[in-house]
Backbone:
């Protein structure tokens, strides 16, 4: 009993010391933040993994080549654990509203027992300049945003740094590493494409071989049925669009065709549906269009949908590329879409002229000069058709999750691949990596 009491007292003392240290860290951090002229901050709730969390409003140059010019406020989230621990630096590709949820914890943060910093992408969410000067939305300006944030915190957090992101966020991490290779010690990009045009030619051949042949045939037949029987399904499409108050500046007929063509890409990208879920001939038009809406989203090319992702479309049409559709497989059933790309999404007043050079340079960097970069893709995700290409260097690895879609992560890899990830990251970072 005496030894049990001693153990209890020691544990209580240890817990008290930890709480005191956490409080001291938070006080120091808040005092340090309060002295920064370009940052204001607010405390926020956090996952129990962390001891403190803050949303920061960070003043950034609109043009990093002219730091004395116009500025905008970028939203940055700081989740603190320990100044000596690693930092997982998340380069969000879109809006970061989800971070307000107190349980946000990236799997790498858990694996590395790390601090976590999440940066909302410029021109998205609350990180928007007063005037949308589109020429300043490019990969170099965004990477420079991230570089300034890293520079600010690098002196505080002495552990290893890993930048990461999912989908467009993974692309953003890739570009950050290209422009500022010394900012972090490793990169983990999830399901992030490296496209070479506004309608990358590698997508269509991938779609002809993805998954099971009988499932591909069922999807194509369903799409053809939607196009052949417009008199049956198109009115229900318009009816649902009216209920959702959607507007299509490209025209409802063209929007219908785009949505039908998008169905196959979305089906394989998200991987949420079995081929048996495709409605048969007996399904009502309402059931059919509701299914199409669930998979592809009829707001996909609506004015509202385009507006929501307008900064992404600008980037896709000027630098980071995108995909188009193969209309030849529809046997002349496409009547309104004459150019199956997304040039119609270019923001008004913007000059959307595609420059292939940035992605070619990033490609050369990854193939020949990059170090400690890991990319994870899903086998059936169409975005894996434009995955990064490697030169065989062990310091850059690409992992394909069998039968995986756009939700492929380290946590849902097969056990042997999980262990490979763990060992690789441990070797690169020289820290313990847990699964």
Residues:
């Amino acid at each position: 009993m005496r030894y049990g009491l001693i153990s209890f007292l020691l544990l209580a003392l240890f817990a008290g010391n930890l709480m005191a240290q956490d409080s001291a860290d938070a006080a120091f951090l808040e005092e340090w933040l309060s002295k920064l002229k370009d940052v204001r901050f607010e405390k926020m709730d956090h996952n129990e993994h962390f001891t403190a969390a803050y949303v920061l409003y960070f003043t950034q140059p609109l043009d990093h080549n002219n730091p004395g010019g116009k500025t905008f406020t970028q939203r940055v989230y700081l989740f603190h654990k320990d100044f000596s621990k690693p930092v997982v630096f998340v380069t969000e590709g879109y809006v970061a509203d989800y971070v307000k949820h107190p349980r946000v914890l990236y799997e790498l943060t858990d694996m590395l027992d790390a601090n976590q910093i999440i940066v909302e992408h410029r021109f998205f969410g609350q990180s928007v300049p007063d005037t949308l000067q589109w020429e300043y939305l490019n990969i170099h300006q965004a990477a420079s945003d991230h570089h300034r944030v890293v520079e600010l915190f690098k002196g505080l957090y002495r552990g290893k740094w890993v930048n990461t992101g999912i989908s467009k966020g993974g692309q953003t991490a890739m570009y950050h590493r290209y422009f500022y290779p010394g900012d972090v010690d490793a990169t983990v990009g999830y399901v992030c494409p490296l496209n070479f045009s506004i309608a990358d030619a590698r997508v269509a051949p991938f779609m002809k071989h993805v998954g099971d042949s009988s499932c591909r045939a069922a999807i194509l037949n369903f799409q053809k049925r939607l196009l052949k029987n417009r008199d049956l399904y198109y009115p229900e499409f318009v009816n649902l669009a009216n209920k959702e108050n959607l507007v299509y500046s490209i025209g409802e007929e063209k929007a219908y065709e785009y949505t039908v063509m998008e169905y196959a890409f979305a089906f394989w990208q998200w991987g949420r549906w079995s081929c048996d879920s495709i409605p048969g001939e007996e399904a009502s038009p309402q059931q059919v269009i509701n299914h199409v809406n669930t998979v592809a989203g009829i707001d996909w090319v609506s004015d509202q949908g385009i507006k929501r992702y307008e900064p992404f479309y600008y980037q896709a049409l000027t630098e980071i590329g995108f995909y188009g559709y193969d209309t030849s497989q529809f046997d002349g059933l496409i009547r309104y879409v004459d150019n199956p790309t997304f040039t119609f999404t270019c923001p008004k007043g913007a000059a959307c002229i595609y420059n292939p050079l940035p992605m070619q340079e990033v490609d050369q960097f990854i193939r020949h000069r990059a170090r400690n970069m890991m990319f994870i893709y899903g086998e059936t995700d169409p975005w894996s058709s434009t995955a990064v290409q490697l030169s065989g260097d062990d310091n850059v690895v690409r992992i394909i999750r069998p039968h995986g879609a756009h939700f492929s992560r380290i946590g849902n890899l097969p056990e042997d691949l999980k262990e490979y990830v763990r060992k690789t990251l441990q070797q690169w970072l020289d820290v313990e990596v847990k699964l």
About this structure: Residues 203-345 form one domain. The CA atoms of residues 227 and 333 lie 6 Å apart. The chain has three domains: 1-35, 38-196+372-379+395-429, 203-345. Residues 9-15 have pLDDT under 50 and may be disordered.
